[in-house]
């Protein structure tokens, strides 16, 4: 473990904010400990919006932080339900499970799940776990879902409802699936749209691109549920996830879910797949939903997009042979042909083979997070030059 605190600033290949939270966060942790949270057994089992006769929970904090983030994503205040999950994958699982339940109940046949090869690998795992037949949708050059390909795929499977996963910030390329284009393709279809915005969902609401994640626009619903990771952009020091859906979708789901299990033991239908739930994380993550926290997040969002532009420009000028690409102005990711193994190791770069001119070519990427300051990026650029 020695040396890790010093080395953390050089982690550039994965979407993790390595900035240590402010001292006020640790003071908040101490306040929570004084009332017993994380000192003896607290449990957030059950629906945080329903009365729980197990009083040792943090449901009040959980409801408050969901309310605050739902407002950021422009959910209607009277049409919101959610909870803090164990991780981004857990949030995705709830979205896909809810979509499968609703669509099967409406149509009498299970849905097929639609997503691209650029989506996070958790979607592949969850499709298998939930027994969903997969339909891989093609992509545009930048990596976003192709509306034309989606339309063709939907037409091929007209007898089944559609469970569609839109990825706002694809894992390797930082592409953004267009929610509006997807919705246009779904007109007339029985469908459920889940948005996986694990990283981008943290910072986009604080930028000029906030509309991309608005749940409602012009009085209409744009998607049914969203998943955002707490441990990526925010810098929360433990894996956790935000899950928010419309209250209408949840109420419909709850009617089906109540038939799956006997809710008598809890005196309520819990609404979550997980039974016992961590009570510490919602209370701790509440700290990241305050007005002051949102102000810090706005500053961090501005920094990472500015520095992503800086890195992209510098790499195009100094290392054109690496063919750097930034998918769009919303993205904090720059990907390029794989540099030396030394650079990959020093900066913990993620690598993948991408198809280029009929061949599989190894690429790497840098995800510009708040700890990746200009000084760190300049060091990276310098090391690229020496390695070349």
Automatic annotation (TrEMBL):
Molecular function in Gene Ontology: histidine decarboxylase activity; pyridoxal phosphate binding
Q: Which InterPro entries match?
A: Group_II_Decarboxylase, PyrdxlP-dep_de-COase, PyrdxlP-dep_Trfase, PyrdxlP-dep_Trfase_major
Q: Under which EC number(s) is this enzyme classified?
A: 4.1.1.22
A Pfam family that the UniProt record links to this protein: Pyridoxal_deC
> Which cofactors does it use?
pyridoxal 5'-phosphate
Q: What class of enzyme is it?
A: lyase
N6-(pyridoxal phosphate)lysine PTM positions read 232
Give the UniProt record's GO annotations in the biological process aspect.
carboxylic acid metabolic process
Q: Which UniProt keywords apply?
A: Decarboxylase, Lyase, Pyridoxal phosphate
Recorded family membership:
Belongs to the group II decarboxylase family.
Q: What is this protein called?
A: Histidine decarboxylase
- Species of provenance: Enhygromyxa salina
